[in-house]
Amino acid sequence: MKKLYTLLLLSFTAVGFSQAPATYYNAATGTGYTLKTQLKAIITAGHIDRGYAGLWTTYATSDRDMGIGYENDNSIVDIYSENPAGTDPYNFIYDTNQCGTYTNEGDCYNREHLVPQSYFEDVTTSFTRTDAHHIVPTDGKVNNYRNNYGFGKVNTATYTSQNGSKLGSLLNSGYSAGAGTPVVFEPIDEFKGDVARCFLYFATRYEDQMDEFYASKTLAQVPAKVMFDGSINKVFSPTFLNILLTWNQQDPVSAKEIKRNNAIYARQGNRNPYIDNNAYVTAIWGLPALSTQTFDALANVSVYPNPANNHRINIETEQILSEIQLININGQLMQEIKNPNAQNNTYTLENLPSGFYFLKLASENQSTVKKIIVN
């Protein structure tokens, strides 16, 4: 039986821009790794070390649930327990639930270095240990499970937190293929972009030390080393760079991140440029590898008319598609449609703004990408 999917793309998510001073990024004029080095200079100048204990003070304004689209209850936003679609399993009160000791999830929150402190502790300044842009408040017990593993897409979980964050072996397929099956930690979808942009910040702010960090530890000492390649330019290994770029694309900059970036700037005097202007990510590292596998059934998909002249395209395939993504040339995920209903073998996308797009079509664990132009 043929399938017809009518998808009305009426609303598009715009990347949020934080409140950087008007001239803050004036010197960011290059492209590629030259741009990354320019951004390093910008975000290093004025960076104030507030001390490790000072992180608690920073969290008072940077990580409170107020005006960011969640419960608005002024609790600490913990990426390992926050439930964006319902009631949180528990909450942390800013000044009463700081770790301390813990036995169970929900006992207390601590200061988690998303890039494990053990990775850079032998070649460090105080800034890497105290920089709030890559140190976030998280549940102490869950952070203990995460340990010093890298981040990635989990295949089979050996541990799952109460909001669905997972520890397990890396899924060696799709956008996370190519690195074998090391143990990794996976945050929920709501916070994958947040984590990615923290890593990209770290790779930029501490650019000139990335090779030293890499050389100072073995993989056995710090499993998160698998994420890096030892260079000061690219910084990340191919698989994990693709994971970070994919997460950055799939989970755009949020109100939570914008508020956090502004609060940290007020405290320590520097900003995360990838929150202020997410296009910097693509300008430096490029787009993620959108299609890691193309299988025969989707190889015959037909997209027409292309170019489209009436802001409408048709996608004809006999496969049941599990997901359609529309991605602009800057790598921004404009629309994501999961498990669309079907009639007549033809998917129709309407009301498309003019532009050049990547159209990603997925069925089960495999996908293909088509380039489309809308006149």
Q: Could you characterize what this model shows?
A:
The chain is of the alpha+beta class and about 375 residues long. The chain is about 25% helix and about 20% strand. It is built from 12 helices and 14 strands. It has helices at about 30-45, 55-60, 115-120, 125-130, 140-145, 190-205, 210-215, 240-250, 255-270, 275, 280-285, 295-300, and strands at about 5-10, 110-115, 135-140, 150, 155-160, 165-170, 185, 300-305, 315, 325-330, 335-340, 345-350, 355-365, 365-375. The strands form 4 sheets. It has a 4-stranded mixed beta sheet with strand order 1-12-9-8, with no helix packed on it. A hairpin with a 5-residue loop joins β5 and β6. α1 (about 30-45) packs across α11 and α6 (about 190-205) crosses α8. The radius of gyration is 21 Å and the shape is globular. The model is unreliable at about 1-15 and about 290-295 (pLDDT under 50).
